Amino acid sequence: MNIFRFAGDMTHLCSIIVLLLKIQATKSCAGLSLRTQELYAIVFVSRYLDLFFTFISMYNVIMKLIFISSSFCIIWYMRCHRIVAQTYDREQDTFRVAFLVVPCFMLSLMINHEFSFTEVLWTFSIYLEAVAILPQLVLLQRTFNIDTLTSNYIFLLGAYRALYMLNWIYRYFTERDYSQWIVWTSGTLQTATYCDFFYYYILSWRKNERLSLPS
Amino acid sequence: CTELSRHDEL
């Protein structure tokens, strides 16, 4: 495992932990899209089903279990926690996730490495992760609310994307037979949707800054 | 690429 890959995993993990800590500390999830968080949970579950079939390393097993449980923990807070659930912008967070899930599933049936149960699900999770942030993007465009989305979270999420791309470049040049077009293409799209999200985050941040200044 | 290298990333 190279340093980019490891750092990428760590920043990804930290971004989720930061989000969880923020929710816990403020007892609020205002501005956070439950639909995006649920899509991430679907992504993790469908990708990490191979926990039951293939063993790669202890590191992989532990990280997969942490990703799955932390994403469900965020969902639990947003749906079930007595106080946090009341701060969820239910009326604004209306993105139809079926518009993302169904096309991604169709695509994974058509374009995959191997037509098998786990492989199709794995491919589906790769496609879905690329667009999973869209409900959050739409919520941000509607409300300009960045209460729960701290700059730490945004930075860590961006670092994760950048480091994973460096990891692919590094692996391509250092490993024989390492090429994976499905992951590269969706990963690039995912980074592009993240950049869009980042742009609206900055926009909302500046808008909020202006509002809080005395006139 | 091999089966393993494709699935060793998270």
From TrEMBL, chain A:
Does the record bear ATP-binding in its keywords? no
Location in the cell: Endoplasmic reticulum membrane
Write out the GO biological process terms.
protein retention in ER lumen; protein transport; vesicle-mediated transport
Please give, as recorded in its UniProt entry, the membrane topology of this protein: Multi-pass membrane protein
Q: Which parts pass through the membrane?
A: 49-77, 97-115, 121-140, 152-170, 182-202
Q: Which InterPro entries match?
A: ER_ret_rcpt
Read off the PROSITE patterns from this record. Answer: ER_LUMEN_RECEPTOR_1, ER_LUMEN_RECEPTOR_2
Task: Name the domain of life.
Answer: Eukaryota
What are the alphabetically sorted keywords of the record?
A: Endoplasmic reticulum, ER-Golgi transport, Membrane, Protein transport, Receptor, Transmembrane, Transmembrane helix, Transport
Cellular component annotations (GO), alphabetically ordered: endoplasmic reticulum membrane
For this protein, what is any one GO molecular function term? Answer: ER retention sequence binding
The record's similarity note reads: Belongs to the ERD2 family.
Q: Kindly provide the name given to this protein in its UniProt entry.
A: ER lumen protein-retaining receptor
Q: From which source organism is this entry? A: Ostreococcus tauri (Marine green alga)
